[in-house]
Amino acid sequence: MIRLHKKKSDITTETLVNTVWVSTFLALVLTIPALSVFLGIYFTTGNLLVGAVIGFGLHFVALAFSDRISKNLTRLLS
Fold this sequence. Notes:
Layout: H1 13-45, H2 48-64, H3 66-77
Helix pairs in contact: 1-2, 1-3
């Protein structure tokens, strides 16, 4: 028989709010620069493919550093 452990239910409101803010700021940090570069290249050169490739690359470079960014945001907001 499989017994599943009960989840912790003693999460404080401060921890929950901090988690929401860190997640929101992390989402903004990961998407806004890549989207800005994509739109900037697209509107200045008119080349959709170049803008998409560079924006896509920048997004994944930011994802590679997401752990460090998340730790710094958590430290900053705590």
